[in-house]
Amino acid sequence: xxxxxxxxHNDVQSHLQRGQTGVGAGVSGAKGEAIRRRMAQLGxxxxxxxxxxxxxxxxxxxxxxxxxxxxxxQALEAEHPDWVRADSPTHRVGSPPAEGFETHPHLSxxxxxxxxxxxxxxxxxxxxxxRMLEHEGAIPFAAEPKxxxxxxxxxxxxxxFERGLTRGDGSVGEDVTANLKHVLSVPLQLVDDGEPTxxxxxxxxxxxxxxxxxxxxxxxxxxxxxxxxxxPRNAAAGGLRQLHDIDVDRLRSLExxxxxxxxxxxxxxxxxxxxxxxxxxxxxxxxxxxxxCDDVDAAVAYHEDLLERRAKLPVEIDGTVxxxxxxxxxxxxxxxxxxxxxxxxxxxxxxxxxTTLLDIEAQVGRTGALTxxxxxxxxxxxxxxxxNTSLHNQDEVDRxxxxxxxxxxxxxxxxxxxxxxxxxxxxxKTGKDAPRLYRLPEQCPVCxxxxxxxxxxxxxxxxxxxCPAQLKNNLWHLASRGALDxxxxxxxxxxxxVDAGHVERLSDLFDLDRDTLIGLERMGEKSADxxxxxxxxxxxxxxxxxxxxxxxxxVGATIAxxxxxxxxxxDTLIEAQARDIAAVEGIGPTIAQSVASFFADPRNRAEVERxxxxxxxxxxxxxxxxxxxxxxxxxxxxxxxxTLSQPRDHFKERILEAGGKVTGSVSKKTDYLVAGxxxxxxxxxxxxxxxxxxxxxALLELLGTD
Length: 706
Ligand code: IVH
Prior knowledge:
The chain is α+β, with helices and mostly antiparallel strands. The chain folds into five domains: about 1-90, Orthogonal Bundle (Helix Hairpins), CATH 1.10.287; about 105-345, D-amino Acid Aminotransferase, Chain A, domain 1; about 350-435, CATH 2.40.50.140; about 465-620, DNA polymerase, domain 1, CATH 1.10.150.20; about 635-705, Rossmann fold (3-Layer(aba) Sandwich). It has 25 helices and 23 strands. The strands form six sheets. Strands 12, 13, 14, 15, 16 and 17 form a six-stranded antiparallel sheet that branches. It has a five-stranded mixed sheet with strand order 2-11-10-3-9. Strands 5-4-7-8 form a four-stranded antiparallel sheet. The chain is globular and about 75 Å long. The two termini are about 50 Å apart. 2-(butylsulfanyl)adenosine binds near residues 113 and 206.
């Protein structure tokens, strides 16, 4: 599986709740630990897939696989509520907004929908709401196609289009107003038919790229030797989120279809069906397939009918959305943090085809993960031709018993990435035509280093931090805020430096000279000097940050700090065996093994040495601040957000010294949110929960200083 940028550095441990060591909800010892580990893994995986889907527009798994992970986590959380991450992906929608866009809070949260995968689940949904409503008769539903595009909110003031936001994390979205203005079906002025439209309106709907336009755009892209879009959804979501060199043609090809009115409902509307009628009268496109079903039987029939019509529809859909039609019943049912109780997305079953597995190739991703990729005899499934698809890892190949030459079933689950789901064993040949077993190579196909698979992990990796396949990602990570925080060293510049051959390993970054920098495209003298200054600043760091910067698998902020506290200096850590590292409280065997093997690799040691030679340094670790037993802030819980005048760690330390506690996310238990500049969703949440909000000055006052 191609891993997401920065994935290697997620810190599994930091997701686990503090102060619990495997005892909870009646499960103890090794089993409890395994469940917690699985929950952390699932949370981490879902975070990554959310980011790939919503922010990067390049999902790596199918909707069906995502749903399976999501449900597994939901089930574990239901059984072990004590171990639920405060910011668990099951509670949230989408992913935090990407950098580069202005953000805006939504007028009311943009929720997601619960899914029904088959008829039984659809009926269970109908039964559940009937039970909750203590309703005897049938409950009518509004039925709508589930559009496969990008959800947006459009704000209208006095009937004029004011602002358009992507879903973002559900409470704050990216401001894509300028791009939306090019979308012809976004009315700039609403039709009022004599009756004035409400003062403030929040319209929700989906931006889609009709299939015909998708084909046309792709033909043109191929002519211009650009990579074609993978599917209409990606083209739509990516189109909306263009920041530079805006492709107006793409925007004009998009279509906005309205399906909800979140704020500003005119008096007298009593059903979702009437809302859709009203949206249409204001000038919005509403899917013409929308209808009303009197009961669940009618809903199932509608769904089957829509599935049959699916291939002929002008836009891609991946199911039916059923909403309790009566708005007062909707209100009675209410919403959960992630989705309303009164609606469900009844998904279409995945589409399948069979073909031959011609070969398996190992690809090295940006985090060093080796992914077996299936080379298939090209086959059409769900409207796309599939010839390559990820097999994720060796275990998947083994579990499915895939052999080169096998006949396999390929599935495209209502969306993007096709999957090999199983082998047709009945067609497996024997004798000299028997298919070949496959194993990932023992040498990295890019740099030749010996590959490594840590115990308990499914991924095989190339451990060489300077492997060309990983270098850009590792540089990006090294420069990131949590690591060496190198101002001005962004993705583009990293690309340039590596592609031009100026940086071949991490440490080369600190060996760059002014002339080399000035020689780069779009790099003036001033920027070059600024970068050199940033690099200089970054040389003075802390032991923990240095460890984070190395990009050791599993070593994020929390683990790095534990290591820095647990080992007096770098040399001792480098020489430590896995068991010495595991002796540090809070560090488990997997992480210990990962750290030990990192430092066991002579290339990594050489790299560390060179970084030190090039001036990276830190003060001998002073004792890490621990929560003082007394002080003005005893019993108070703080959350820090936004940009403050000094790094957050500074304030955290001071709060701890004063006896307070600092946590990562806002909840009812939070006493104060300290909000710096550009605070985002945490601030919104704190306001909602009526948590006291402090600015930096107010915090200093509480701490007893000015
Ligand atoms: S209603 C509170 N209606 O599917 C209800 N959503 O998986 C929120 N979607 O976030 C949405 N077609 O982006 C609704 N007819 C439809 C839809 C629809 C597609 C999208 C939407 C939503 C996602 C949930």
